[in-house]
């Protein structure tokens, strides 16, 4: 499998040891509910994890929770709660939102506050090696001490100026230097350290949790493109300065969500909470919406776009549930077109995880299934449905079972079948045929046999022009 590595700006082969992929994905700062833009990396990299597992890899998937940060402290003051209470509440809400999107739980979900002592140890090592310095009980990383600084983001260290995403502080030796340890203010959460009570910097947290759970070199480190600088650049600098080893083999960054071309964000106010979008359209529609676009490119969000994704998902389920309700038949001749489409599905995913092409292959499989049903090849229709289930499952799609028909609906259908039988006994064949035809229009197919009349849900007819 080849993936586009942000560090090298090219496609690179994913090469791992022991068939195990060690993967770290930056998680949320838990001070509020996640918005629908935050959900994009969660879905995209969950799908990548699922696909790798479907191809026989073992994936150790780590996604952290930042449970101490300035935004959490501010929210705690606003709500009259402790920072721990705020973080615990929004962590649970975050996990609830992930479940609604069909995102599997990570192998490990480390909380930053559980690793503070190890963060202190890393900072001590960086100070001792000359990569960090202490100023008034704060500790900063010296970007000038690390020659490779800027290689991930492409920013030139000497040209950096304090600005939008660089912490402004006159105590720093260089505008790009960043905090590894911050002295706590009165009433703020704090932990002991050689430099006084304080808390770790955001960039240090991910380095320590990643190293502890995945080792000094990670196979894949992923997140939104907004994290390339400064967060991931600063992670890389600390980790490689501390060990002298490559921190990450392949860096992956998804494009950001926009609204009418403007980046979605809470600071802008043009966002929607994930749970509100899921309540309106369903979690699988959101997942399909994201996977139907190139994961590395910006994506414009609209209700109409997600609604269209839902209609597509519903059409696939209409086919699946109808085909799976067909009577079993001895398998007929293999369908070469299905084999070719399965191969295409894998080929496009293994070339930079091109999910739009993979979904296109799934839609073609559905078309083949419709055509098989139209040609009375029930085995072909069921084979197509089985393939959609298997391949779709490798991306976290199309796994819902056929909903049970309500008891009332069953009773009404049986009542109409009994009425039709009575009409046939009374030789009122036109009326009996009318009952059968009306049920057929509603998607209920009647079958007369030696044991009486049975019924099943009939798959929808292919759209005009769908079959050659």
Radius of gyration: 28 Å
Largest sheet: 4 strands, parallel
The first-to-last residue Cα distance is 34 Å
The level of helicity is: 40-55%
Could you spell the SSE succession in H and E letters? EEEHEHHHEEEEHEHEEEHHEHHHHHHEE
**What count of helical segments does DSSP give?**
14
CATH architecture title of the largest domain: 3-Layer(aba) Sandwich
**Strand composition percent:** 5-15%
Mean pLDDT over all positions: 91
Low-pLDDT segments, ≥5 res: 462-468
Total count of domains: 3
CATH class of the largest domain: Alpha Beta
The spatial strand order of the largest sheet comes to 4-3-9-10
CATH topology of the largest domain: Rossmann fold
Q: Can you count the beta strands?
A: 15
Q: Report the CATH superfamily of the largest domain.
A: HUPs
Q: Look at the helices and sheets and give the structural class.
A: alpha/beta
Can you offer a commentary on this structure?
There is one protein chain. With 468 residues, the chain is α/β, with parallel strands linked by helices. The protein has three domains: 2-254, HUPs (Rossmann fold, 3-Layer(aba) Sandwich); 278-393, Four Helix Bundle (Hemerythrin (Met), subunit A), CATH 1.20.120.640; 407-457, no CATH class. 44% of the residues lie in helices and 15% in strands. It has 14 helices and 15 strands. The chain has helices at 39-54, 70-79, 83-100, 116-128, 202-214, 228-243, 274-281, 283-291, 303-324, 336-349, 355-374, 378-393, 407-425, 429-441, and strands spanning 2-5, 10-13, 20-25, 58-63, 132-135, 138-141, 178-183, 198-200, 218-224, 248-254, 257-259, 262-263, 299-300, 444-449, 452-457. Strands 4-3-9-10 form a four-stranded parallel beta sheet, sandwiched between helices. Strands 5-6-7-8 form a four-stranded antiparallel beta sheet. A three-stranded mixed beta sheet has the order 12-11-13, with no helix packed on it. Helix 1 (39-54) links the parallel strand 3 and strand 4 (58-63). The protein is elongated. The two termini are 34 Å apart. Mean pLDDT is 91; it is low at 462-468.
